[in-house]
Design goal:
Elements: E1 2-6, H1 15-29, E2 34-38, H2 44-48, H3 60-63, H4 68-71, E3 73-74, E4 80-83, H5 92-99, H6 104-110, E5 118-122, H7 129-137, E6 140-145, H8 149-165, E7 172-179, H9 184-192, E8 198-200, H10 203-206, H11 208-211, H12 215-218, H13 223-240
Parallel strand pairs: 1-5, 1-6, 2-4, 2-5, 6-7, 7-8
Antiparallel strand pairs: 3-4
Length: 242
């Protein structure tokens, strides 16, 4: 079993899009029993996978008032389940800080490993206690980066934060998202980091919100679907070597 944290300091960089599409790749392309744990109070992953909200119980999992296993819901996608988010997660950082147990999320994940081969964490943006716990629990940390100076600066801050606060931590994999090759700024960023995976900006990605499906489910031959599949294959190779 492996846990993949999808995290960004900035919002609006394609974090949830990345998490949902990689969860689909895990379940469909790799036939893995996959859990997507939505940790963002905006509950975008929950919405995209057409799951009902946890009705105020999402934070209760961390207090152990409700078991995580009881809140896991199947999706319409074979082998893909979700642990949905709701508005109660707005108070999770304060609760975890007061709890003082830095590995509470890691312990909860241990209880989910019997039923799942891959757990993907859709983390909230920002340097938060929730995100810190997710990164402590992760086997691999994916950071979406728009090809722009501000987004690259945010990525550098994440790297510095992990080095100073966590010491040894899971490998970090930056991923260019929302790539528009018509823009000189984007082309320059891609040329500077040619080894970073890249996911293009495309109408199929924007259609996810209307269709409430991962791109691979309705546009499997589109450039973004192929990019997500290529990225996932690379992730599986990295996990095999950890």
């Amino acid at each position: 079993m492996a846990t993949i944290a999808v995290y960004s300091l900035k919002g609006g960089v394609g974090k949830t899009t990345l998490a949902v599409n990689l969860a689909w790749c895990s379940a469909i392309l790799s036939s893995r029993r996959t859990l997507l744990w939505d940790l963002d109070p905006q509950a975008a992953s929950t919405y995209l996978l057409e799951s009902e909200h946890a009705r105020g119980e999402a934070q209760a999992v961390f207090a152990k008032d409700v078991s995580a296993e009881k809140l896991v819901k199947p999706t319409a996608i074979e082998r893909l389940s979700i642990l949905p988010a709701d508005i109660s997660l707005r108070g999770l950082d304060r609760f975890l800080f007061g709890l003082g147990k830095k590995k509470r999320m890691a312990k909860l994940i241990e209880g989910l490993t019997r039923e799942h081969d891959r757990i993907i964490l859709d983390c909230p943006p920002g340097l938060t206690e929730t995100a810190d716990q997710a990164m402590r629990a992760a086997s691999l940390i994916l950071v979406p980066v728009i090809p722009s100076p501000l987004s690259r600066r945010a990525f550098d801050e994440v790297v510095a934060h992990l080095a100073s606060e966590h010491g040894r931590h899971a490998p970090i994999l930056p991923v260019f998202t929302m790539v528009d090759r018509r823009r000189a700024l984007h082309l320059a960023a891609l040329a500077e980091q040619p080894d970073w995976p890249a996911v293009p900006m495309a109408s199929a990605v924007e259609a996810m919100a209307a269709r409430r499906e991962p791109v691979g489910a309705f546009a499997p031959r589109s450039p973004p679907a192929e990019a997500f599949a290529l990225l996932w294959r690379g992730i599986e190779k990295r996990l095999a070597n950890l």
